[in-house]
Design a protein that fits this description.
alpha/beta; Rossmann fold; Dehydroquinate synthase-like, alpha domain; 2 domains; two-stranded antiparallel ribbon; 15 helices; binds nicotinamide-adenine-dinucleotide; binds zinc ion
Length: 386
């Protein structure tokens, strides 16, 4: 009998709003009420460190109750990279099971990038997906991870291996959250700002260079500007580059990340995401300069920016040797290829603000880049991650 075939096709429009404010739990609380409007109930999950830093949060949320749908309560749990684990995901799902939001409810997630990644995944899985309203509380999550469409946990020794694309219902970026953020957390976010500037906005890159000292000092108005412009660029990319769920082989926003993700794993939690990204950007920029991809020298400029921002980097792990006898960081390239689905495409800047996808970059030259960056940074005696 001849095979019977039915093709089914449909499209689902996605849209979400990202708001920038200085006072989400005061003068601009209506933004939260607006985002929650239309939902049957609202559950709020807060990262414990944020509650410690902002003990007035529960009262501020309680004061908002008349404007909000009925509450399923406020729950808290520790965040950080440990929550991005199978055990963390299980704890989050158990908490959702207990609070029991329905599919017409919303879950407000308040926390850093790791908390949002893990809790966002749990909420995306629960009932096959409940609306998530994100309140990112770190500079990195406000400028990059929290405004995007990806949720994931780490598994089997690999970063972000288990995850889904689940766009948020809304994102509320409150600059006041950054006031309690430790200096180290303020600094490493600048690596993601530099990444998106190199790919999309030469003016932002030059602005970061001019304000590197203030950024290194954690100056809040300066940080707020960098965070906001980077978030705008990330959103522009997601909304207009035509591949929000990354079906194509190039992953422009992952510039510098093949090395960064492996370095984070090699540093076993001692390097912050942006600290590993800083090193990854240097490796890929050195490569782009020596492979003739860059139209003008950029490595020294980037190095000056990152060192002026005093971002410590996991430099010693560039020398780690893997079980196959090769430089351990090189395994990141194979993982990245597998993640992309076969052929390896890396995105590099050609000049600040413009980019090019390169298929099958030269592995030997990338390894030379790792060695050259290691040598250069070690000679400079730069601050390293613990
Ligand atoms: N989903 C994505 O597209 C994407 C993109 C980039 C990075 N990421 C992920 O994001 C994670 C890193 O995020 P991060 O840099 O926000 O780290 P994080 O979530 O670990 O937070 C850093 C530290 O700051 C604390 N903290 C959070 N908010 C605070 C506040 N307002 N005041 C004081 N302390 C506060 C946290 O408890 C934690 O100790 C990594 O897991 C990375 O893989 C995801
Ligand atoms: Zn990143």
């Amino acid at each position: 009998m001849a095979a019977h075939v039915i093709d089914t096709a449909f499209t689902i429009p996605y849209a979400y709003r990202t708001c920038f404010t200085d006072d989400l739990f005061g003068a601009d609380a209506h933004l939260l009420a607006d985002a929650c409007r239309g939902h049957r109930r609202v559950l709020t999950l807060v990262e414990e460190a944020v509650l410690d830093a902002r003990p007035e949060l529960p009262d501020a949320l309680a004061a908002l109750a008349p404007e909000m749908p009925p509450s399923l309560g406020l729950r808290h749990l520790p965040g950080g990279e440990q929550l991005k684990s199978e055990d963390g995901l299980h704890r989050l799902c158990a908490l959702l099971d207990e609070a029991a939001p329905c599919r017409q409810s919303a879950v407000v997630l308040i926390g850093g990038g790791a908390f949002l990644d893990a809790a966002g995944l749990a909420v995306a899985l629960f009932h096959r997906g409940v609306d998530q309203i994100r309140v990112p509380t770190t500079a990195l999550s406000q400028c990059d991870s929290g405004v995007g469409v990806k949720n994931a946990i780490n598994a089997f020794g690999r970063k972000n291996l288990l995850g889904v694309f689940a766009p948020p219902h809304a994102v509320l970026n409150d600059a006041a959250m950054l006031a309690t953020l430790p200096l180290r957390e303020r600094r490493h976010a600048i690596a993601e700002c530099a990444k998106v500037a190199l790919l999309r906005d030469a003016d932002l890159f030059a602005w970061l260079e001019r304000h590197a000292e203030a950024l290194a000092d954690g100056d809040l108005p300066t940080l707020r500007h960098a965070v906001r412009r980077s978030a705008e660029l990330h959103l522009l990319h997601i909304g207009t580059a035509g591949d929000p769920f990354e079906h194509r082989s190039a992953r422009p926003l992952d510039f510098g990340h093949w090395a960064a993700h492996r370095l984070e794993a090699l540093a076993r939690g001692q390097a912050r995401h942006g600290e590993a990204v800083a090193l990854g950007l240097l490796i890929d920029t050195w490569y782009a300069e020596h492979a003739g991809i860059l139209d003008e020298p950029l490595f020294d400029r980037l190095l000056r920016l990152l060192t002026a921002c005093r971002i410590p980097m996991p430099i010693r792990h560039l020398d780690d040797i893997g079980p196959d006898g090769d430089l351990a960081v090189m395994a990141g390239l194979d993982e990245f290829r597998e993640h992309l689905g076969g052929s390896l495409v890396l995105t590099f800047p050609t000049v600040p603000g413009q980019r090019r996808d390169c298929e099958n970059p030269d592995r030997g030259l990338l390894k030379t880049a790792v060695r050259a960056v290691a040598e250069r940074l070690q000679a400079l005696h730069l601050p390293q991650t613990p």
